[in-house]
Design goal:
It is built from 15 helices and twelve strands. It is α/β, with parallel strands linked by helices.
Length: 451
Amino acid sequence: MGKIAKFSTPLIFQSKLLCFSLLYLFSSLLAAVYFSFSATKCIFRSSPFDPLQGPFFSYPLSYGQHKHAIPTTRRSSCNSPVYFSDYWDVLEEIQNIFVNSTFPLPLRYMQGNAETFGGNFSFQNRISYFDHHDDGIELPCGFFKSFQISSSDQSSMEKCNGLVVVSAIFNDHDKIRQPRGLGSKTLDYACFFMFVDEATLRRLHFHKLISTKSKDFKVGAWRIIKVSSDYLYDNPTMNGVIPKYLVHRLFPNSKYSIWVDAKLQLMIDPFVLIHSLVVMENVDMAISQHPFFVHTMEEAMATARWKKWWDVNGLKVQMETYCQNGLQPWSSDKPYPTDVPDSALILRKHSAATNLFGCLLFNELEGFNPRDQLPFAFVRDKMNPKLDVNMYDVEVFEHVAIEYRHNLKQGGGANVGPKTKRVSSDLFANGNRTCGKCEGYLLRMWGESHD
């Protein structure tokens, strides 16, 4: 009679320690493969199975909304990677914040009529409002001229009482880009508003993205708000900073907002972004660091050198005004990693400090020019109450949004003003030691001050 075959356990499985080691090895390899093929190593999600919506809008090929993407370095690591929580947990927590948290009473704003939308206040008048501790004092904060929109649009904006995502296109300077990575319930709880003028609206009609018969316009996720430019600024860039920095006035019942420059395509769900960069950090505002500059004067020099603003002599006056009134170069003594942001994406809690910052910064933009990186550090450092800002790594910014070049017009880019005014070289030339009212700033920035 034959013997019954006996099967012994392979030696490799007889050691518990070896089994656990192999299990750990395979788990690590799977995680490495996942993160290697995921979109980023700067952003980590708790689950790769969040309920993301697929594409929900198709453009005609003629519109070309995805032309001219600006390549990023897609760095393989981050100094401060961002960890995103589970979508459903985020949605529940933020909804609870909307319902149960106490948000500040609105600031009191000046009313009346003026020659410009912002009131055209002098610098000494503007700076007198930086120290704001009396809620009874009325602040200048725009709207001294009519911001003309339809009554139905106004009603829709007032009903947005949670998170609002805002963008703007004036003078047909950009394309409407649909957000990606939205959770399955995000469009039910978040509002998306895009402000446009008549020139942009005509282009949308031309491409049949909106109907000429309808009074309420929508393109994908975005509700399109037509703004009459009759009472606004001649410069379309200045018109764009109205919704960018006065969002708390346009949406008085919203608790949080995200500003998205029209040159960006948002790639991460807005609730997840607000939760990770604002709520979890317990700050008023989150904004990216500039990829190259840390000093305001560096940005001013680049603005003049690359003709980002036509009145270069006006830039000199602006910087000397700020230097004379306490602007300091960035140093490690400041509680921020830089003085220069990339302001294309701004995440805000509508707190008293954030609303005050928006008013003060807008007033500076009207007073000098719409280059919002120039007054950023001056307003942030001089205002009271202080603003808590999360100035996160530029690597994170590169992964939460894709940047596209502005519309490329025939014969070059759109004009932003008259022919460039020349300025004497005493402010922008490094070798000159007669730097006017900013000499002390520049010496400290170059590390040559003996103060």
